[in-house]
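Support request, priority: normal
Reporter: lab tech (M.K.)
Component: structure prediction queue

Hi team, I submitted a job for FAD-dependent oxidoreductase from Pseudorhodobacter turbinis yesterday, and the status page still shows it as pending. I've pasted the exact input below so you can check whether something in the sequence is tripping the parser. The sequence length should be 343 residues. Please let me know if I need to resubmit or if it's stuck on your end.
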Amino acid sequence: MATPDLTIHGAGIFGLSIAWAAAQRGARVRVIDVAKPGAGSSGGLVGALAPHVPELWNTKKTFQLASLLMAQSWWDAVQDTGGLDPLYARTGRLLPIADEALLALARTRTLNAQTLWQGEAAWNVIPASGNDWEPHSPTGWLVQDTLAAQLQPRAALAALLAALQAKGVEFGGEPHGPQIWAIGHAGLEELTRNHTRQMGNGVKGQAAAFGLDAGRQPQISVDGLHIIAHGDGTVAIGSTSERYWDNPTSTDDQLEALIERARAALPCLAGAPVVDRWAGVRPRSRTRAPMLGPWPDRPGHFIANGGFKIGFGMAPLIAEVMADLVLDGQDRIPEEFTVTANL
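Reply from support: The job had stalled in the queue. We restarted it manually and it finished. Here are the results:
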């Protein structure tokens, strides 16, 4: 058997996406994970690819925009190769506007988006229509963001796995060649053990899915709650952000409260049964940005971590820049995303 050109540790969204980008370039790739694919934070239910607001522009927002704009063609290629649908759709997003001050701010952001989103998407202020798939808005106005997209996380991972298998990517075995570590919060803990400063931490999240086929609808974002109508006949909601917990994969009263908030925000969910519950720990770097690049003091080892809440949206471009770095020696990683930025 030929020795792989690249070994990737971790079969979550970062690991599998990088494996796909590398395999697309003809590399021989091996993926190693101590558990099954998607066993960590990537195996959730929500899949909200929601952009940052169009203001106070910075490197992180520029990178996210580029990744969201390339997502359709990127996921289409995954589906075409492996034959499985990641349930990706750029459906946009609706956000209620609570008061007159926020209404004025939303209108300012409309102008910002025309420039910052490069004419590729819009941040509109529209009147509420009162239909079943709209959050209540105290002002009678909503933000309509046309950049937001969504996918079903488990369907997306399954689509990636099928595409990687079609490309001949190996799973399991011994590591060979350059190694990329994309192992979530465990990786942040490993980095912290070797440094005097905390490099990041895990944040527990809980989510749920209702059995309701709402068709293709925009995301709803209200008071930090995401509501996503998936193409598999479910509506996902999430998530909590918990710094302290006893069991990382158990759900509790915090999720029940989230379910009630979702039903209050969108009454069409009132009679829908809850068909799935999920909890897991998501990796958040110290800077809250993705952490990418060479592993200090480990020649030939690289890190792809810190996808807290933005992992699926950032994954297409992160995969390409990591493949650039490891396979071609081309460093396109923003300074703010480097491992040294967290030291």
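The mean pLDDT is 95. Residues 6-90+147-199+286-342 form a domain with the FAD/NAD(P)-binding domain fold (CATH 3.50.50.60). Let us know if anything else looks off. Ticket resolved.
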